[in-house]
Design a protein that fits this description.
- The protein has seven helices and nine strands; from the N terminus they run ααβαβββαααβββββα.
- It has 195 residues and is of the alpha+beta class.
- It folds into two domains: 138 residues, 2-Layer Sandwich (60s Ribosomal Protein L30, Chain: A); 39 residues, no CATH class.
- Strands 2-1-3-4-5 form a five-stranded mixed beta sheet. A two-stranded antiparallel sheet has the order 6-7. It has a two-stranded antiparallel sheet with strand order 8-9.
- A hairpin with a 4-residue loop joins strand 3 and strand 4.
- Helix 2 packs parallel to helix 5 and helix 4 runs antiparallel to helix 5.
- The longest helix is centred in the middle third of the chain and has 17 residues.
- The chain binds zinc ion (2 copies).
- The site of one zinc ion has 6 residues, from helix 2.
């Protein structure tokens, strides 16, 4: 169970309380129990969505973009994988769906200016997410992908086109694709259009 302090902290971090954030709180609470907190980089999250839920995971679990232990895959799925480096423990959570179906249908029928009605359904959604059995919300399995590599700092090099400094591993130099130049990703995309 999350403490009121943790819940308040998540809401302050995200900026508002919403159903998506509440799903993230349930995930964060579960991961803290199963994997612990990522003070450094020992726990890695790979998220397949960039919706509100991910803010709760960042805040509660300590998997953040800046530390490099939060990896975003733009797949549009409510799926979340977690890895612990110390013992190779891993899991993937995928949302089963349907939990809020009836409430979403009710919400759609509401008049756009029925603010009180919308607020009430919003709160019902949040309450239902908080009270549901975790395994009713998410299906739990082993991670389907290998553990991501440890975040490393690579030296920067200049792109031969825009002249900006770029992490060396993000530059491409190919005799055909870039004409032998070191090109950053956006310059490479422009170059491609010209061919
Ligand atoms: Zn939100
Ligand atoms: Zn460039």
């Amino acid at each position: 169970m999350l403490t009121q302090n943790q819940i308040d902290g998540v809401i302050a971090f995200h900026g508002h309380h919403c159903p998506g954030l509440t799903f993230g709180m349930r995930i964060g609470d579960w991961v803290l129990n199963e994997f612990g907190h990522a003070t450094d980089e020992e726990i890695v999250a790979v998220v397949e969505t960039d919706n509100c839920s991910v803010d709760a995971i960042q805040y509660l679990v300590g998997c953040t973009f800046g530390k490099g232990n939060l990896v975003f895959l733009d797949y549009g799925k409510n799926a979340y994988s977690f890895f612990r480096r110390s013992d190779d423990k891993s899991c993937r959570l995928i949302m089963r769906g349907g939990l809020l179906q009836d409430l979403r249908e009710q919400q759609e029928k509401l008049n756009a200016n029925d603010i009180a009605g919308r607020k009430q359904i919003h709160q019902q959604m949040i309450d239902r997410i908080l009270q549901a059995d975790f395994e009713k919300i998410f299906s739990i399995s082993h991670a389907q992908i290998p553990m991501p590599e440890t975040a490393r700092i690579h030296p920067s090099q200049r792109c031969d086109c825009c002249g900006e400094l770029v992490m060396a591993t993000r530059l491409l130099n190919d005799p055909v694709l870039t004409g032998g130049k070191n090109l950053c990703i956006p310059c490479r995309n422009i170059h491609h259009k010209e061919i």
